Amino acid sequence: MNADAGTEADADAVTGPPDGMVDARDDLTPMLSQYFDRCAEYEDALLLFQNGDFYQTYCDAAEEVARVCELTLTQREDSTGTYPMAGIPVDNAATYVERLLEAGYRIAVAEQVERPEAASGLVDRAVTQVITPGTVIDDELLGAGTKNYVAAVTREGRTRAVGAVDAATGECLVTSVDDEAGLYAELDRLAPAELLVGPDASVDTETLAVAPMMTDHEAADLDVEAAAETLSAYVSRPDAVVEGDAERRACGAALAYAEWTQGDDGPLDYVTRIRRYDPRAALGLDATAVRSLELFENRGAGASETLFDVLDDTACALGRRKLDGWLRRPLVDRERIEARLDAVDALADAVLARETIRDALHAVYDLERLSGRISRGRADARDLRSLKATLDAVPDVLAGVDGVDGDAARLDELRERIDPVDDVRDLIGRAIQPDPPVELTEGGVIREGFDDELDRLRETEREGRAWVADLEARERERTGIDSLSVGHNQVHGYYIEVTDPNLDRVPDDYTRRQTLKNAERFYTPALKRREDEILGAAERADTLEYERFCEVRESVAAETDRLQAVADALAQLDALATLAGVAVDRNYARPTFHDGGIDIEAGRHPVVEATQDRFVPNDAALPPGSVSLVTGPNMSGKSTYMRQVALIVVLAQMGSFVPADAARLPVVDRVFTRVGASDDIAGGQSTFMREMAELTAILHEATPDSLVLLDEVGRGTSTADGRAIARATAEFLHDEVGATTLFATHYHDLTGLAEAYEGVRNLHFAAEREDGDVTFLHRVADGPASSSYGVEVARMAGVPDPVVERSRALVEDADRGTNGHDDGIQVTLDGVDRDGVEVGATGGGAEADDGVAATLRETDLARTTPIEALNLLAALKDRVEES
Q: The pTM is what?
């Protein structure tokens, strides 16, 4: 694997031995030689080399680890020289690994694969795991209830394919799209932490909402035949799961990379199914829409609430991950939407049953990640007990579901899918201690009564320890030495200790074991026999106990498919119960679907409502294909209104009730937003350029089934250009696209379009002005606004009084047709007067026609962009109308 972390970190520069050492490898100590051998095997990863209780690094790697992890750089000295050294504790490795991942490193973990006391010489070490941002599996490095994908991108002709694997849960997805825009939309939905890009594909990570680590993948794994071989280990008929070579290569490469990082020579047993999905089966939400609607990230200063925050009252990590996925991919299949709504409706009405379900789900651990660790053979005894606690909760969950009345086929289906897995629960209950230790090799893991041979060994050990415990009293009585004591240490084993003044009373059967400053330690033949019995029984018992634990873990791992099916059913039930609870607590209404337009009664913005004491509801009656021009002052609620319409649509199509008294909605295919913008200086785009790029995507991709939100299109350029672009855009959406559109604007002359176009209508946000003060009513009403109240808003914001008064005077002058100096000159901007007429334009119809013809003849249409064409069309249209 070749690494390009996208940071200053350079893995190739820190893993190998210093310059000049390669030729002298034979002179290194065996341990350092082993260290650099493992480094060479994983040359583009930083190697953590276990040495007892620490993961050590040496030479250049040590200097990097010390710098990134803020550790003290030490030295290792031996017969061959002095080497920089830095180590991190095994028991607290996650903290430092997280820092190294954030710095852009891949990490290879070389663990001791044999016990030091059992090694004949140098302890053997092998790389058991490669940790990368996209293949992290440890809970300490992952957020609860989150997804973490490594994705692969390939291309065959026009088709771009994406394969993604969550190495922690075993989820595997694959899809394909026909264009670059679709590819970026899917990558933004998946938000992979790591991306593998095939040699025939390309991805500009700067266009993604979150830039992943880029990995140059082995070309061999991207080969069609290699990918087919990888896939055949997971599904008997790959062609029944994936479509085409691009999907086969992408999915196979992602799985092969995940296998490599987990140190597995074969398939990942916990990847029990590969799911292919069609992006068109979900409501289209590109990164701009997700960001503008603040579904997962709030861009407001000091604000933290998002739509997901409002919805997320899930009881367990499984449900949180499922709810996140539903919000990222709302449905477009009306039947599936209604099935979810039926389930939410039934759970909303069944208060006691819903609380029973939620109480039980609070005891559920992250079953998907648990089953993954168990399948990989990396689960400890506490993981198995966590699995049992989860399965213990299943009967209560089922009892809650049985208590739900009403017709909800989805709940009935989930009820059938929730397998109690009683055999696994019983096995863990019989085999594993209720509160087992973390270490698996030191005993105390397997319950008494599970294995007869283990019980016999433990009894031998207990009897021996009891005999030793009584030895002190017996020997004091036999020897008459009251200060005699019996003890044990790891070096010398069991001993009888006698102080120097009493040595003359030591029996003949005592054999000296150790001399201390003021005492001697002895053993007897009987004590030595008991010691051998105790130690022998303890060692054999520890070994046997570990073997029995591994057998139990393997038996549980064999049921991974069943466990993951239960996990998915519990996740869906948690998400549905959460949506029902939110609907009840926040007074949401069930939406209904029809073939008409958007009709919302007393709609509310779910996030603003949740964070403010008072919210003014508003209706929304948007006929299909209509363009609604929304005018009114800043701060009056235009943007909030538009967003709340879109959020109600998103909530409804994810299967949630909505914040409204009632909502009759069509099924929308995509939601587009052009709401606010910012500079992309690094990408060479100004605010206006970004606005135009987003507008271009909307005008090209929107359909009659789309919902489009536009806010202040054309504000980033001159008044004349901005007005022209805004008008041409509104006309194009009405005439050519036919999408239902909400278009907020301060260009009040656009409101005249409602008279010229049947499908264009005016809405405004009402305000009251009294004695120079403006009160925003936050209510939407039909018709255009009478004023933008810009000067009043400036005064409210604290602009100095002289500026406010001068501004008010200039507005009044402009309304009278002067430029503020009473010289009779009409105010013009960029050659266009206040009424939009080009200064100096001819008034004769024939001359205007000649001018239009001349302009068209001089225009190179092959080199004209869509936006330039819209501007030109608007200018020509205005010229003809004026003539």
A: 0.83
